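WARN no homologs supplied; continuing
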Amino acid sequence: MHPMSRVSSAVALLLVTLQLALAEPVDREMIARIRDEGLQRSQVMDTLRGLTEGFGARLTASPAQREASTWAEERFRSWGLVNVHQEPFAFGDGWSFAACDVRAVAPFQGPLRALPLAWTVGTDGPRRGLVTKAKLSGEQDFEALRGKLRGRILFIEPNVPARKPPDPTEERPYRRFDEAGLREIAADPATAPPEPTFVDRTRGRWTFLDARNRFLAEEGVLATVERSTRPADILWVGGGGGGGWPERSRGVPGLTMTVDHFNRVARALEDGKPVELEVDVAASFHRADAPVGNVFAEIPGAGRSPEIVMAGAHLDSWHTGTGATDNGAGVAVVMEAARILKTLGVKPRRTIRFALWSGEEQGTIGSKAYVRDHIATRPPPESEAQRALPEFLRPPTWPITPKPHHARYSAIFNYDSGSGRIRGIYAQGNAAVVPIFRAWLEPFTDLGASVVTLRGEQGSDHAPFDEVGVPGFMFLQDELEYKTRTWHTDLDTLDHVSREDLMQAATIMASFLYHAAVRPEKLPRKPMPQAPTNQ
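OK structure emitted
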């Protein structure tokens, strides 16, 4: 061998040695134990069935949501977790509905598929009325309708055109990532600007929606009907009335109707035929006997117990289906990760805290309240109009003021994209965690998890942490039927959940929590967020 070749080989060997020395440590013995418990003796489906079919849909502040929170506490305690408790946050009315019946009386007869919007008032028995179809997208539309709607059922024209019927040869209602799709996500951190979140959309319409409710009630409208945003027989649901806020008008009964049935009524009206419907909605409001709360449980740390690693998922859901994929699946994954780690008797350096949030569907209210109470605050807005908004709708203000415990938090890992298996994790623009997460995922490549992308995800309960400088991460999951069929629809039930995917996800969640809790240092942080230069 040439002397230079020996030198080159020695240098190469030294580099490899240094890389191994600097590599993120992975406890493969513990991973083997976690995999064995999570994949051979899983209770994730028992937990999910107990939550979803035991309590059904769990609208924030509803009796079912409160009962499910107590059930989750009891289950955590039965597994031996400690510091199990709820922390309350401000919210308004609970709501539930017991029945909804809509049928056509003339010019055709038969049932029509519709469900009420959350927090809508009931009809106090069957009510009949003729249908009027009109645009109602802003206060500028009020005057043309004034005096014409008493006793009418108002079909509200959507702001977007009806979706074309899907082409059966192209429709992919059940979706998993292929290798090309995963490579694209891993390689491209520069994505398009995020779509407007629930908070963004609601902020722009908050004042109008209250004015609309008052107008409809004053004009004596019998009920409103909106067209579902999902095709065929799927009912996409959301909030109506005053959204649970007691100071806002509850308006009139509001419903969502399937595309096919809405369009049939609309076509009859276009043909000049009077359409009469009968509507019967039984709904109840529940003033809070106790505050709404987030649920917490812990495995205490041994050496660095003041420091915290968190896992989170939201326990609340919308009011149809049983909230199985959004987000009973996430709750079951977080709780199963807790059970796995407690069963294995892990002794982490840092405390592992498990969080089941409420109010996520109304704008991550519960997680924002936790961040405000424990981690960091922002000043009130200077604008009177912004101060008039509820806190969860206010735009970010500056500066961020960290609380004393801000430095204790290492990370929060969030699960909230249906029941699909974990394919990787969004690093949320935090380049320093990329090699760490790659090392943690490497033992799970056989289970389909391998991607670490710098892309960020918003719109769920990790975001309030990330927005104040605490590392918050979302797992990248196979979509399955989440966006096409189950997300916020009446099909969000246990029948659309993948058992094997949830077992895989809970196993990886447990491993991530363990490694974050035992590594010598907390996970690296991005620079503290600063006010945009144009503010």
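The domain at 95-165+174-284 is CATH 3.50.30.30 (Glucose Oxidase; domain 1).
OK
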